[in-house]
Amino acid sequence: MKALALFSGGLDSALAIKVVKDQGIEVIALNFVSHFFGGKNEKAEKMAEQLGVQLEYVDFSKAHTEMMKQPVHGRGKNMNPCIDCHGLMFKIAGELLEKYGASFIISGEVLGQRPMSQNYQALEKVKGLNAGLEDLIVRPLSAKLLPPSLPEREGWIDRNRLLDIQGRSRKTQMELVEEYGIVDYPTPGGGCLLTDPAYSMRLRVLENDGYLEDDYAFLFHLLKVGRFFRFEKGRYLFVGREKADNDRIDSFKDLGSVYIRSKDVPGPHILGYGDLTEEEIKFGAELFSRYSKVKGKESVVLLINGESVELEPVDLDKLEENSQKYLIAMNN
C-alpha cells in the first residue's frame, strides 16, 4: 500500500507522514512548487531523509497562477486563495496516484489550526473541489474528528491509530516530535508569500495592471527583492538592497528594458521594466547614487544598458519626494 503526501517540509506534514508510515504504508512526499512557495530546498530534503521517504517536486506554478485569477472560494486577508490552492494540490496529487502506484492522499492539515482555511467547512470545501477523489483524502492529524475516508472504512489504514488534534495550540505536535525523535524541524509558520501583507500589496499592483499571468512570472520573483517603484501601468523599477537582491536582479536583466549599475562604486543593481521615459530612467540613476557608497553627494559613473554615463550629485530632497510618490513599500 502506498500513499502520496502533500509535503511542505514543515512539521505538520512531516508528522502526518510519520503517523501513516508507522502503519507500514509507503509514503511518497510531494513538494508542490509555485511562484510563491515550495521548491528545491535543503530543509525539505533533510526532513524527507529523516522520515525515510521519497521526495518529489511537483511544479504546478502555471496552473496555480491561473487559479489565482478567480479562485472559487475567494482569498484570505491577503492574496492567498488557500482553499482553492489546497484543492488544486489534491487534484494534481490525484492525477499522480497511478504514476506512483499509490492508493490515497494524505496531508498535514489540522482542524481549526487556521480559522479560515482549516475549519471543518473549509476542509470539506477542499474535498468538494475534487469530485471522485474526495473519499481518498486522509488527514491523519485530525482524522478522528472528521468523517471516515475510504482508506479508513476499507481498513487500508487503521483509524484508531490516527489522531484527533485540533486548534492552534501545537502542544500535541511538540509531544509527538519528542516521541518520534524528529530533530531539526523548521519553526512553525507559513511559507507562502501570498499570506504576507507587504508582498501581497505589491502583487496587487501587478494584478491591477493586468500582469497576473504566468508569462510575467519573472515580475512576481522580482517583487521579492529590494525596493519596488511604479510610475504608470507596466512601468516599474526594481532596486536591490543587498547582494542577494542584486544577484536576483542580474538573473532577470535580459527581461527588463533598463539595467543600471556601476563598475566603480558599490551600490544597488537596478532593473527597469516597460517603456520608461528619460525622466524615469534618470530617476533610476539617481536612486543608484542615493543608495550607493557616495550617498548622492558626489559624481558617479554609471552603466546604463552597458553605456557609461556620468551623473552629477543629486537633489536629495527632490529625489525623496519622488521616491515617496512612486515607492510601493515592503520593508522600505
From TrEMBL:
Residues 2-141 form the Thil AANH domain. InterPro entries: NFACT-R_2, Rossmann-like_a/b/a_fold, ThiI_AANH. It comes from the Bacteria. Keywords: ATP-binding, Nucleotide-binding. Gene3D superfamilies: HUPs (3.40.50.620). The keyword Glycoprotein does not apply. GO terms for molecular function: ATP binding; CCA tRNA nucleotidyltransferase activity. The keyword Nucleotide-binding applies. Residues 226-321 form the NFACT protein RNA binding domain. This is tRNA-specific 2-thiouridylase.
